Amino acid sequence: MNEQPVIITGGGIGGLTTAIAIGQTGRAVLLVERAPRFEPIGYGIQIGPNALHVLERLGLAQEVLAHSSILDRGILSDALNNTPFAELPMGEALIARFGQPYAVIHRGDLHEVLVAACEALPSVQLRNDFEVAGIEDTGTKVIVTATDGTHLDGACLIAADGIWSTIRNQLFPGTPPPFTSRYAAFRCLRPVEEIPAHLVSNVVNLRCGDDFHMIHYPLRNGTLFNLVAGMRVPDHIAMDDRDGVVAHFEGVFANASDEVRQLLPFIDRSRFWAVSNLIPLHRWTKGRVALTGDSAHAMVQAMAQGACQAIEDAFVMAKHLDGAGTIETAFARFEEERRSRATYVQYRSLFMWELIHARGGWRDLRKEQLGSMTGEDFFAQLDWLYSAAPGSKLADELSWAATTQAAA
Ligand SMILES: Cc1cc2nc3c(=O)[nH]c(=O)nc-3n(C[C@H](O)[C@H](O)[C@H](O)COP(=O)(O)OP(=O)(O)OC[C@H]3O[C@@H](n4cnc5c(N)ncnc54)[C@H](O)[C@@H]3O)c2cc1C
Q: For 258-286, how does the pLDDT look when each residue is reduced to its tens digit (9 = 90+)?
């Protein structure tokens, strides 16, 4: 075993899951996070069957599912006239097809499960208040420097430091920064009893406007109502012009259905996210440094896969670090196994983003194409992403012959 720890920067879903997956092999891991506490933003997140297959292999699925809700279906509707045009079964039929459910969970609950799993592993050390400023790969180790000048030595560095990664540009100078889709996302999490009862049901509701969308679903056994409203910000308003963006928000839903407008008062206007995207990278790794999660492949959230892909990264990274060969070889194998799949998910997410915000005749086409699809048709379309059946890409990722993986 290598004496120096694997250093992970970033205690988000990606970094924590990577720490668990590697820590379960017995290898020392030191995860550093710049925030004083491991605390995500307090909203919901959707976890697809692909990520649950990974969490199952890590021995975490049961705990995650204990805090999750399994919804009956996903309904896509026209947000202008409240007409549903597509329905994806999400209950038993989806579980029967993909071997794992489609879950929704409060991010805080997911984080708690992941942090507790890290803390339960003697091989994993967590350290807060450590903001990585720079790295040096000496060829035999990495030296990680914090903004306060502190140094750490590690066998290698895994950068799970999110879409605005500090490490990415140090590793690959000249990489274009993430670009904004010019959409802003506003969120809301409220006790369910505050929401008009006719708008609450056990489904993921995706309401597609032209320049806007709304998605909502219940959380924590139906006690909370999670809502995200996204809208396109016109070019004359800068994405960092908070007042301008919020002022535009007030008007953009004017032609939306009553149902959408009834939900607007619940939206928190004090904060919004500029929906951003990363142009797919040619490389994720160099020497003893690797990018994972959003730092490697941030995507628009149209397929709810950003965190799910980070979870897949975690498993594949641990698998290759546990295999024979050097760290450099393991990182290269990780990149080879993961890059094209995650890049494809980035691409499909952009496509879905366009579909959600279709305008003019595209809206008619969307209705024609999706309206005729059965639940089985949707499953067939999602097979490449969710299925872990023998021969699938996910099954390959999950194949790990090592005997050291504690939970396998
Ligand atoms: C509105 C919205 C809805 C979404 N919904 C879904 C969904 O339903 N399903 C899904 O799968 N995905 C969803 N996503 C995407 C998902 O949130 C991200 O893809 C995922 O959180 C990325 O995880 P990560 O660990 O790679 O990065 P992050 O969660 O960004 O974590 C990065 C961590 O690194 C830390 N950090 C950053 N820089 C440094 C540094 N220099 N030193 C030390 N620490 C540092 C940060 O503090 C942070 O804790 C959504 C995103 C948005 C915006």
A: 999 999 999 999 999 999 999 999 999 99
Whether the CB of 313 sits within 6 Å of ligand 1:
no
Residue 14 Cβ contacting ligand 1 at under 6 Å = yes
Instruction: Identify which has the larger pLDDT, 152 or 1.
Output: 152
Shortest-distance atom of ligand 1 to CA 51:
11
The pLDDT of residue 278 is 95
The pLDDT of residue 1 is above 50:
no
Q: How far is CA 192 from the centre of its chain?
A: 25
Backbone angles phi, psi at 353, to 5 degrees: -60, -45
Mutate to test the pocket of ligand 1, among 161, 295, 345 (most ligand atoms within 8 A of CB): 161
- Rounded CA gap, 209 and 300, in Å? 17
Output the CA 12–ligand 1 centroid distance in Å.
6
Ligand 1 centroid vs 37 CA: distance in angstroms? 15
CB 281 within 8 A of CB 291: yes
Alpha carbon distance 354, 83 (integer Å): 19
In ligand 1, the atom with minimum distance to the C-alpha of 146 is 42
**What does the pLDDT look like over 331-345, one tens digit per residue?**
999 999 999 999 999
Ligand 1 atom closest to 166 (CA): 41
Asked whether the predicted pLDDT for residue 407 surpasses 80, the reply is no
Which helix (H) or strand (E) segment is 206 a member of?
Answer: strand 203-208
Q: Are 226 and 218 in contact (CB under 8 A)?
A: yes
d(CA 178, CA 258): 35
